[in-house]
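Z., the sequence and structure:
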Amino acid sequence: MVNLTINGKAVAVPEGSTILDAAKKLNIHIPTLCFLDLHNLKMVNKTASCRVCMVEMTGRRALAPSCSTPVSPGMEIQTHSSRAIQARRAVVELILSNHPKTCLTCPKNTNCELQALAAELGLTHIRYTGKTHTHTLDKSSPALTRDMNKCVLCRRCETMCNQVQTVNALSGVNRGFNTMVGTAFDMPIVETACVSCGQCVAVCPTAALSEVSNMQKLWDVLADRDKFVVVQTAPAVRAALGEAFGLPPGRAVTGKMVSALHQLGFDRVFDTNFSADLTIMEEAKEFLNRVKNGGRLPILTSCCPGWVKFFEHQFHDLMDVPSTCKSPQQMFGAVAKTYLAQQLNVDPEKMVVVSIMPCLAKKYEAGRAELTVNGLPEIDLVLTTRELARVIHEAGIDFAALPDDKYDDPLGESSGAADIFAISGGVLEAALRTSYEWLTGKTLEKVEFEALRGFTGIKEALVPVGDLTVKVAVASGLGNARKLLEDVRAGKSDYHAIEVMACPGGCIDGGGQPYHHGNFSILEKRMQAILGEDKGKKLRKSHENPFIQKLYAEFLGEPNGHLAHKLLHTNYVKRQKM
């Protein structure tokens, strides 16, 4: 332990800690901008590039960046001396002097860390004037927008894209005033290896990176009386939406969310959980077919579109390994524009399918050319959890006071196995619940697979299934997925199944969820909310869902059968490796 003094208060912290760490232990607030503690990833962005967290150190002439300066014995620190405060104000003023003054129309308005920092420091005018950046807005992607005029060079996006996700789509380029975070050869982001996971958007302190908004398109289709508009909500949304309305993190708001969607004017409100159960029917059947018939193993889950695009770029030599199942979002669209349209006697061409997702990659996925049904896109519009919250606010709905409502039938019933799709390990756990009973013919009494849960980047488990011991792995975050896939490529993997989710922790930490600003406890509470939803369900295995059984009996036939394969399975595209 290292003993030091901060603002006259003694504190002891482990060797290797920073001044900022020590200050937090004393509950002393030091403003930061570039700093980000990715606690669940055991990684910290401490580039010290912004110099906002400068403090005064006795015996040192220059101010020190508290986020990156290690503590030493006997150190005496003043965090809020006049000199430190004036330095912070000057630094933020300089940043603002080269920042667009469009706060009122900015996507991050009231959620911008730079805006909050300027308010905290009491900045009411900017003394510095001079040349400002004039970067071209990059709107090439269907998922995210890049406005480098708003970039503060914190490098958080680089840390996330390069070190956590290992996608390497973004990097600092040029020098001096021309320094920026850019793409290779300044290509539009859509032409790079970007997988649209949105993790860069989630950590960006300003709106240099933001999601493509579909809010106005939603209002337009809701106002079109010739359209029959249905909506589906992903399992992770219910665990985070309430945060946007002041409700405590970890509170599942399923009923209120459904009530709000009905009030907004959707003709039907359905649950993506239904098609998550459908996904398990197809994926578990595909897995068992491979096991019984000597097929290619390990099978890789294919629910996450960011992950799918990642292996299309990085591992397109392993295209026969992933499951061919579409994601639950796309399965829902395929069923809605065929079976549901028949049931409701609605012209599929007049049906608009809207998705509420925790993920930016779902916006990209909806536009994939192969994901169509009878010439129509399976999904017409995707909004993130954040966008839905803004729409509800805009509609003047008092969300916290809403009564609980229920999803509409027949695509609103689901099992607890579908809920856990929102967390890392959940898809594989759900698949094992069904695979076990199909393979053994016995009832699985304990449905929880604890070893697959939690925020560990790579989790492994041995699962006895009858006479077979199934070895499985779960990867959370694309950097961890890369490690597992490199073993598969090298022939070193002995897994039967691997689940991958692009976002660390799973969909609860999706790029479209309410910003948690690195507060890991929020993610833990979201996970507990999802586990509570699962535990509270009467049905906890996908194959027990009576509406799923009815769908197969009346329309699809057998899992992995001809029609099921036509509607619910897909193919992948070999993309350029960069």
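The two ends are 45 Å apart (CA to CA). The chain has two domains: 2-96, 215-568.

Let me know what you think.
H.
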